[in-house]
Design a protein that fits this description.
GO molecular function, one term: sequence-specific DNA binding
Protein name: Transcriptional regulator, AraC family
Number of strands: 5
Mean pLDDT: 82
Largest sheet: 5 strands, mixed
Keywords: DNA-binding, Transcription, Transcription regulation
Low-confidence stretches: 162-167, 169-174
Structural class: alpha+beta
Length: 406
Amino acid sequence: MKCANEFAFFLKVLERSGIGSREFTLPADTDLEIDAGLRRQLGVTPSVFAGCQMFFPHMEAGSVYHVTDCFYLHYLFFLLPDTPRCMVIGPYLSLRPSGQQILETAERYDLPPARAHLLEEFYPTLPRIADNSTFYAMLYSLCELLYGRQAEVRPISLEDELSPAALSVPTREADLPAAMQRLEMRYQLEDAMLQAVADGDRARLHQLLHDADLNVAVEHRLADPVRNIKNYCIVLNTVLRKAAQRGGVHPIYLDDLSRTCAARIEQLPTTGAAQRLVQEIADQYCLLVQRHSTQGYTEPVQTAMLYVRQHLAEPLSLRTVAGALDCNASYFSARFKKETGHTLTGFILQERMRLAISLLLSTRLQVQTIAQHCGFLDVNYFSRIFRQTTGCSPSEYRKTGRALQL
């Protein structure tokens, strides 16, 4: 094989870095084990190779196939030139799965707690290769030597439905009109999404996301496909935040959601997961407009809404809110009801229930602690009000995990 010395050096680097690799002949045996024994220990089938059978026949020399599986494991496949043999590198991680991701994976495969614990012990044993690691530059340089041209990186998620058309190497658009049309489609889609978020129109947003092709929107500026999608999601997070602000949401809520989304973007394990995350992020900003927009209200009512949402753990009443705004309580009560259609007392209760639901679904705080965060000193009273609002107790609600729109 040409460049044998460079190839041998690369293999030595893998060995010293603790990154597994092996060669095999196509068509591959589906019983080959390349996931460091994870599926065997968990009793999960099929094997990684069984999942790869769909794209093996479509592999082309000069392409690197970046494969991710349902356990957040990464693999790199590429053909060795002038031979029927293939090289696979992995498994490795780009990020360590969080505790929540591990529990969700265990639940998906009905793993008992004892086997779920195997996942927690397994991940620290794997090497971690960051998106901006020089490892990728080294690999792509090697492939350029082997094939005499720049490697084409093909992202594949074994969780996605793969079609032969999706697995073929895309042709590069050479003519300017086609490239311009792609850009126009991308900007039209983004403008429509931003308007839907600013209007709080979830139905319109869901239709746009259903029809959207994320591959059209993502600019393939870097060799790593996951990093490309992460960069796009970072930009989208920023523009959606501005759209929600245009929809009347105060920056205090936008900043909290924006930071949460940014952390989730960096946790993206695969390109397949990006489409779902984009939908979730856009939907969250749209919900934020629906729940927290103060657009159309006068400044005193806007200020009162913000004050209530920032002080839910404290004693709140018409008198305390009107006093904070330096307004007459009777006059402000009538004004708030006229503009919002709700009494201030009803609005306070609604916001407390929303906070309670959020804390029940996103934390492991005790019900008594959640009651205190929502301004209820008596947990029994809190539970009674919660049941009247939702139809079940806080503990029952947490077990069902269902989201109630208030």
